[in-house]
Design brief:
single chain; alpha/beta; Rossmann fold; six-stranded parallel beta sheet; 43% helix; globular; binds uridine-5'-diphosphate-glucuronic acid; UDP-Glc/GDP-Man_DH_N; EC 1.1.1.22; UDP-glucose 6-dehydrogenase
């Protein structure tokens, strides 16, 4: 008989995992303590923007295989329980807050059937899985725990979950691996690489991967700083080094840097955990990665100041983009919003446009003005900043919108617009890591 699965925590990770597992034919029940979230999900509605997820979710609910609950006891007849709760940065520190992971484990422990498996998917500091496994076995000796980190990207969550580029399973027992092979049978059939690891290695794979990605982005942003100093062009440099397959061209997009709910907090939690382990020096470089990343936000504000004669007081600034990246409505640690807030605090009158993230952005920063229309955002602007590379912004015709603004100055914080096109339409065009001489 097919396994019955539960998913504990129905945020980006959990809601996607639940819908995708159901689409593979499993019966799945999603659990969350937040009543409003469960009410929405039960109606086939996704409480955040993720391309393709809502369609999949409602289709799976209609199939009868997928349901949601706020009652943990409804999970009692499941064979495998995935823990997908968040591990945010603790307030006032760098470490990960494990409150939700700990309480998920404690609430499910006694309900796990004999031979049942708890599978952690949340990003946790190394050592957590071993501790949780001991706790689980103490509360329920017939249960087991494995770790199975998730590498999905927001904006591609469904695709990444259904077709992951690798599956990593941290297990202690062969029986745990066997159950996970049953869960991921369809991926194995398609030859998705399968990496069996011990528990600590599986936890480390996740933070190592995110640290590497963050390092790649900060590396190219450091090169952008050098290009600015030496009158070079970081976009050409990135293209040229990217042709070397050992380097690769992805994640070399210079600009205002990384944000979101993962990369920034994960590198900080990694540093905090390494220090606890007495291995602080090994990841000390991540402090520099973080600093380069935050510096990019200041560098763009410097460009704005230069073009506005160092006086932002009362100046109308139009900002295109609020989400931390395109195809997402997530504004957690969004570089775009951070820049908007800092410019507003310096006295400017800022209007922010985003096709999907305005509701979330407004909740976080009610002091900013928001607009759902690009043209209204640009109206009378004394400078325009492109901070999240949504496709709709690349489709703007610089000739058409020139008459809307007061000063035709575009600052491209993502190196994603066509400089030639904007310049030939008569705009001053600035970008990070490129010569800003006309
Ligand atoms: C990241 C990882 O890419 C996923 O593999 C991982 O599963 C996820 O974190 C997680 O830990 O849950 P995500 O946060 O969705 O995924 O976003 P990314 O696509 O990695 O982008 C992160 C940030 O880097 C964005 O702000 C993006 O604008 C920025 N970025 C990305 C750049 O500035 N330059 C680049 O070249 C690429």
């Amino acid at each position: 008989m097919a396994l019955k699965l539960s998913v504990i925590g129905t945020g980006y990770l959990g809601a996607t995992h639940a819908a995708c597992m159901s689409s593979l034919g499993f019966e799945v029940i999603g659990f969350d303590t937040e009543v409003s979230k469960i009410e929405l999900l039960s109606k086939g509605k996704v409480p955040f923007y993720e391309p393709g997820l809502e369609e999949l979710l409602s289709e799976q609910i209609r199939s009868g295989r997928l349901s949601f609950t706020t009652n943990i006891n409804d999970l009692a007849d499941c064979d495998v329980h995935f823990i997908c709760v968040g591990t945010p940065q603790v307030k006032g520190g760098n470490a990960a807050d494990l409150t939700y992971v700990n309480s998920a484990l404690e609430s499910i422990a006694k309900l796990v059937k004999a031979g049942g498996l708890v599978v952690g998917k949340s990003t946790v500091p190394v050592g957590t899985a071993t501790r949780l496994r001991s706790k689980l076995i103490e509360l329920n000796p017939k249960a087991d725990l494995a770790w199975n980190p998730e590498f999905l990207r927001e904006g591609f969550a469904v695709e990444d979950t259904l077709k992951p580029n690798r599956l990593v399973v941290g297990v202690v027992s062969d029986s745990a691996e066997k159950i996970l092979k049953e869960v991921y049978a369809s991926n194995l059939k398609e030859n998705t690489p399968w990496v069996r690891a011990d528990l600590p290695t599986s936890e480390l794979v996740k933070v190592a991967a995110n640290s590497f990605l963050a390092t790649k982005i900060s590396f190219i942003n450091a090169m952008a700083e050098i290009c600015e100093a030496a009158d070079g062009d970081v976009t050409v440099l990135a293209k040229a080094i990217g042709y070397d397959p050992r380097i690769g061209s992805r994640f070399l997009q210079a600009g205002i840097g990384f944000g979101g709910g993962c990369l920034p907090k994960d590198i900080r939690a990694f540093m905090a955990r390494a220090e606890e382990l007495g291995a602080k020096q090994a990841v000390e470089f991540l402090k520099e990665i973080d600093a380069i990343n935050l510096r990019a936000r200041q560098r763009i504000i410097e460009l704005v100041r230069k073009d506005l004669s160092d006086n932002l007081q009362g100046k109308k600034v139009a900002i295109l983009g609020a989400a931390f990246k395109p195809d997402s409505d997530d504004v957690r640690d969004s570089p775009a919003l951070d820049i908007a807030v800092q410019i507003q605090a310096a006295g400017a009158i800022v209007t922010v446009h985003d096709p999907k993230a305005i509701t979330n952005a407004q909740k976080r920063f009610p002091v900013l003005n928001f607009s759902t229309e690009i043209n209204d955002t640009l109206k009378d602007a004394e400078i325009v900043l492109h901070l999240t590379e949504w496709k709709i912004y690349r489709d703007i015709d610089p000739v058409k919108v020139k008459s809307l603004v007061k000063n035709a100055i575009m600052i491209d914080g993502r190196n994603a617009l066509d400089r030639q096109l904007w310049r030939s339409a008569g705009w001053k065009f600035r970008a990070l890591g490129r010569s800003n001489n006309e």
